[in-house]
Amino acid sequence: MNAGAERTFEPLPPAHGRGFATTWWGQAWLKALEDTALDNQMTKAGRRLARAGAVGAVSVRPGRITAVVQEKGRAAFRSDVLLQQLSEDEWDRLLDLAVDSAGHIAALLDRELPPHLVEDAAAAGIHLLPGIGDLEPECSCEAWDHCGHTAALSYQMARLLDQDPFVLLLMRGRGERALLDELQVRSVARASTLEPDADDDRPEPAQGVRAEEAYAMGAILPPLPPLPALPEAPGRPPALDTETAPAPGLEVSSVQFLAERAAHEAHQLLTAALAGLPFPAPLEASQDAVRLALGASAPVRARLAEGSGRSREGLELAVQAWEFGGAAALDVLEHAWTPAGDEAVRARAALDTAWEPDERPQLKASGNRWTVADAPAQLRYGRDGRWWPYRKERGRWVPAGGAAQDPAAALAGLLGGEQIA
How far is CA 250 from CA 240, 245, 255, 300, 388, in A? Predict the structure, then answer.
């Protein structure tokens, strides 16, 4: 058996405030330790020692890792953790599996342990990652099971595995250089046997993953990373002011505006999602044009007015309504309707009980709109059962405020304030 080369790693700094493994293979190593140890207090002691930097230089060689663990103010102990090496036959089959996919070799070269390779090897009876009882402890403290010293060494080993999975392969019996050389030899040999016949012009079959393999991978895939922190403000899209002239008919300012609004909308949606709030209902194109017009420049507003079938004055009114109540307020502005059935009964009851008999203004009804007879004021009844105030300015009705459940409250500001003819 090619024993490979021994590797020695300098002591790692204390691991304050961080986990010992972030990769899925490092976590599998720790799971083997924690599932094997009979005394949870020993694993807790091992974590404490490892976090404190008590583990010295770690020596890794086939079948064994070794380090001196120095407890503060106490004696130092030589600790070893043993892992059975793979047999020659197991290595032969494992190497064949590795060269079956160029992705396996590429992942190893990137210091990653490909899940497909581990899963395929396990299906073939070759266990790369340790399981329950595979990590055997030896310590000069003479503990018969895992002690705090061997546990500390194992936790430190998980950090080394995170950095380089070849450390695990060395424990299983192959050094990195020898392993890569063997993979290269087998890859060349396989390529030569798979070269297509010059007369064979049939396309190569598409490669894929069997459904049962993909499903099985779920048990060994790493957990999802934590969600990133919410940015304080929307991001700024890249500037479009370049030396290249825009295409004919393309307004750079309009595209820049849309990009900025998209970033703002994305930030709002992400804020709602992280807070567990429901997403708003999707808008129709005519509604979205009004939303986009908020804060837009005059040229952009002109384009939005034209695209939504409104006059510029109509868009300004729509924006004013939107600022008071979004899509519901816009609907009240632009769509007249006649309450019927229960809706009509509720509207009439609200109007009858909103004022004292001697205080009620004279109202003239038309559909969902009630106009005050002796004042340029109007109430509009929304489809959601709320009342919206309107005032007459220069011969047109304009939104005058937000909605209220009580018609008297909605109208009070208009009748009590300055009236505009």
Answer: 12, 10, 8, 12, 40
